[in-house]
Amino acid sequence: MESVSIGARLASSVVVPLVKKLFVADGPGAGLIDRPTRISNLVSFHGEKRTLSDADFRKIAQELVERAAQSTGISERLPGFEQRAVANAVTHSLSSLGHVDMDDVQAVQLGYLELSRRLRAGNQTATLGLSSDAVVLHTNVLDTACLHILHFFTTRSTFIPRTLVEQSRRIEELSSKIDLLIRRTPSPADGGFEERYTRYVFGKHGKVTIFGLDLSESSREWPLDAAYLSLEATGTTNGDIPVVLPAEQVLAGRDRVLLRGVAGSGKTTLVQWLAVSAGRSNPDERLLHLHGLVPFVLPMRSLTRAGARLPSPDEFLSAVGCPIAHAQPTGWYDRVLTAGRGLLLVDGIDEMPEGEREEARSWLRELIGAYPKNHWLVTSRPSAVREHWLADEKFTELDLAPMSRDDVAAFIWRWHKAAGSADAYGKELLYAVRGKQELDRLATNPLMCALICALHRDRRGYLPDGRKELYDAALSMLLSRRDRERGIYKEGDMRIGETHQVQLIQKLAYWLIRNGRSEMDAKDVLDLLSLALTAIPRVADQGTVQQIYRHLLVRSGLLIEPIEGTMQFIHRTFQDYLGARAAVESLDFDFLGGNAHLDQWEDVIRMAVAHARPAERTRLLTGLIDRGDASTDTRHRLHLLAAACLDDATELDPAVRTEVQLRAEKLIPPRSVDQARALAEVGPVVLELLQGPENLANGEAYFTVLTAARIGTDAAIPVLTRFRTMDDQRVRAELALAWSRFDTDRYAEEVIAHLYEDDELYFVVSNIRELRALRRFGGRSLLRITSALSPEEIQASCVFDRLAGLCIAADLRCSWEWLSAFPNLADLTLETPLPEVDVSSLRHVHSLRTLRLPITTRVVGAELLAPALEIVRVD
Which of 15, 246, 549, 699 is the most buried (most CB within 10 A)? Predict the structure, then answer.
């Protein structure tokens, strides 16, 4: 796409009337002219046809400059005399139109940016003595004027339209884009503050802390551009057919999205990516729908700290500790939200106490009712909010998918590159993850992948197998081995052993869990540590409580201060793990059981079972069973939680295990997405309990497949193979979609090869290996490509005469004439996130009968296509 000049931000309604005055009007008979016209013969301020005086010419230039200076806010820092100097410079540069040696057709072919450059080059003395701000303003005004000059040429009756249809349309498209950007431009009074706020967002959210990369001071923070890994979000269409899209594009064509993801799945990193992307001056084309929006990052753990009420819009910045909140212009938030320029990123509904979430939903409803035109993303753990929780507010509900094998490989390579490790470590780890089923099952989200990478390097290749063992090893690395092996201690330094650090930090974790919080005031931290230190004199004697807290904050790697005076864990998972340990050591089994029905306690209960001794596990699990048996409201949740705990119970009374499994069997088959999610969280143990497809209704079969597919280990393949011959469209579509989560060749042979084709099932291809596997099975007639494969790869790996329908759900950055190689291709779907798509090259694909495009995408070149080609717009 040609770059859009947005520096001046002059709307068409302002520029067009002024540009028209620069040229003479068409006279009688003008339409009979069939050749280009020299520009010097068109201008109204030069030659024999002159109708514009020098004074009027200067007034036009002056008005262009004044409007541009006001729209960008530059008028506030550019003195009046210098604005007048810019107007004189624009006058001199535009006067070069009377001397350029080209005609209107040549000018349009040249493009508006090159025309602007030539006009400036034709009068280089025009900007001598101007400040840098003034030179930039001059350039932007001239760029915008040239854009509309070329647009004016293409609309004149004397212009030869058939010779330059593409150029003419491009000029009109660019003009429309500038008008769209105008609507997202701050008022002059707000421009300066928004520039400051954008810099703050970049500084605050433009970097992330990835576990394991804080092993040296130089790599403590990882730039977001390097850390961000594009994951997938999944959902269903109105017909319950699974769909998948890149997570960063969940707001493309959608104004409101509720995104669910498990702990560590990358929800907060995605929020940071969207916030930073909205403020980029040169955004990726795929994220243009965010350009010009003002991000408000609203982490619920911060908004509700110490029981605070949820903020009103004027308090958004102060509530998250933004240091320039006091500087926002009066009424700024209202102007932004009323204009629909807000990008509201509400992160972590699950981090609120369950009893307060209804208040949060009411808060969201009131905000949306007052400011309906904005863009909203709300994130949560899956179990924290029920299905259709925000359906009345027209939110689309999506899930962050587990990392595919390709995602895991990409993350491992990036992590080792950022950590400065040898490639051999990355190759060895990737081999280990794919070779050991336990590691493969754990490496499903960025947090666990980073944990595994860090431990693999720290232990020179040795990795524990289970989740508890991984966390224990990570704590050991963070709390003692890191500083000891780096030789960081000096004579006289405070030294707190690993065991004592764990004892202190786990008390902080348990306090947060018991109080339903994710953040803690420093005063409460000090009070709690003071009480704990009375029982640990060896540590208490080393310094004051403030010094000991500072040591834990700096050295442990587990605690951070998001803002001064507030403490939280580096990740909620570590808080839950250590809090569970504290609960077990305190023998708080009745308290744990009494809170087991609350979603915030689910991971705590599972980790408590892992920490507990065999008799204690029996007590915990028996309590869950008994409470579930006695309750109709929470029975399913408690019995499923007990089943999920089996994966962490390394030693357990067989009779208790049997009782847990018997109750889980009663919840099978699953009958909703929520039940499928909950069963998948139980882990591979549930695979043994899944029934079917015999004696299952279609809906039950689909949710059973969804459960097995979400578990994602190769142990699920035998379950999925039982459903491969079913007629149910949803079942077959889910089986095709799940391919990327399993070993490519084994899944292809056992599942994909047996899915029969019809005119509805699209086989999903996420990498070249899958496409080649399909070719070995004779190809398929309907394909959906979800990754950026090259046209050459697609041509080489498809069976030419078999492909009848193709869906491209990735940005291939190409034109489409190569599709003519498929003689039977009749149906093409372009699920593009780009704001526009040029389809003119499809005129070479003579077999095409239907073209499907997103309803929000602007279509370029449709008039060049065959009349018989039907264009269908889809949501």
Answer: 15
The answer to whether 836 and 173 have CB atoms below 8 angstroms apart is yes
For residue 807, give the amino acid letter. C
pLDDT at 711: 85
The number of C-alpha atoms within 13 Å of 756 and in the hemisphere containing its C-beta is 6
| Whole-number Å distance between alpha carbons of 254 and 394 | 10
Nearest to 368 by CA among 235, 487, 252, 257: 257
Q: Are 575 and 518 in contact, with CB atoms under 8 Å apart?
A: yes
Tokens 């086989």, located at residue: 763
Q: Are 151 and 167 in contact (CB under 8 A)?
A: no
Q: How many CB atoms lie within 10 A of CB 457?
A: 20
**Cβ–Cβ < 8 Å for 668, 690:** yes
AA letter at 459: R
Residue ranges in the chain modelled with pLDDT below 50 = 1-8, 28-33, 162-163, 214-219, 482, 484-491
User: Which residues on adjacent β-strands are paired with residue 342?
Assistant: 294
Single-letter amino acid, residue 173: E
State the pLDDT at residue 216.
Answer: 45
Give, for 518, the enclosing helix (H) or strand (E).
Answer: none
| Residue 341 per-residue DSSP state | -
| Contact call for residues 744 and 764 (beta carbons, < 8 A) | no
Is residue 790 classed as helix, strand or coil in its secondary structure? coil
How wide is the angle at C-alpha 754 spanned by C-alphas 752 and 755, nearest 5°? 70
Residue 694, CA atoms < 13 Å, CB-side half-sphere: 0
Query: How many angstroms separate the Cα of 640 from the Cα of each of 618, 647, 700?
Result: 16, 12, 17
Q: Residues, the chain, total?
A: 875
Q: Do 194 and 294 touch, CB atoms closer than 8 A?
A: yes
Residue with tokens 């520029």: 15
Structure tokens of 243?
């769909």
Neighbours of 401 (CB within 10 A): 24
Structure tokens belonging to residue 273: 């990516």
Rounded to a whole number of angstroms, the distance between the first and last alpha carbons of the chain is: 24
Residue 725, φ and ψ in degrees, nearest 5: -105, 10
Peptide bond into 669 cis (omega under 30): yes
The answer to whether 827 touches 849, Cβ cutoff 8 Å, is yes
Strand 763-765 and strand 559-560: the pairing is unpaired
Confidence (pLDDT) at 564 = 78
Residues 270/249, Cβ–Cβ less than 8 Å? no
Residue with tokens 């049997």: 658
Of the candidates 457, 198, 408, 450, the residue with the CA atom closest to the CA atom of residue 317? 198
Q: Answer left, alpha or beta for residue 841, where phi above 0 means left and psi between -120 and 50 means alpha.
A: alpha
Query: For residue 163, how many other CB atoms are within 10 A of its CB?
Result: 13
- 78's tokens: 């550019």
| The pLDDT value given to residue 151 | 79
Residues 6 or more apart whose Cβ sits within 8 Å of residue 156:
26, 30, 104
User: 343 with 278: CB under 8 angstroms?
Assistant: yes
The pLDDT, as a whole number, for residue 820 is 93
Q: What single string gives the DSSP state of each residue in 347-369?
A: E-GGGS-GGGHHHHHHHHHHHHH
How far apart CA 3 and CA 5 sit, in angstroms, is: 6
Q: DSSP 3-state assignment of 618?
A: helix
Task: Give how far the C-alpha of residue 505 lies from the chain's centroid of Cα atoms, to the nearest Å.
Answer: 32
For residue 800, the number of C-alpha atoms closer than 13 Å in the C-beta half-sphere is 9
Q: How does strand 850-854 pair with strand 827-830?
A: parallel
DSSP structure string for 189-256: HHHHHHHHHHHHHHHHHSEE--TTTTSSGGGSSEEHHHH----EEEEE-TT--EEEEEGGGTTTT-SE
What is the tens place of the pLDDT at every residue in 268-291?
A: 889 999 999 998 877 676 787 888
Specify the residue for token string 């142990």.
715
> Which H/E stretch holds residue 851?
strand 850-854
User: Which pair of tokens denotes residue 483?
Assistant: 């500083």
Q: Write down the pLDDT at residue 186.
A: 67
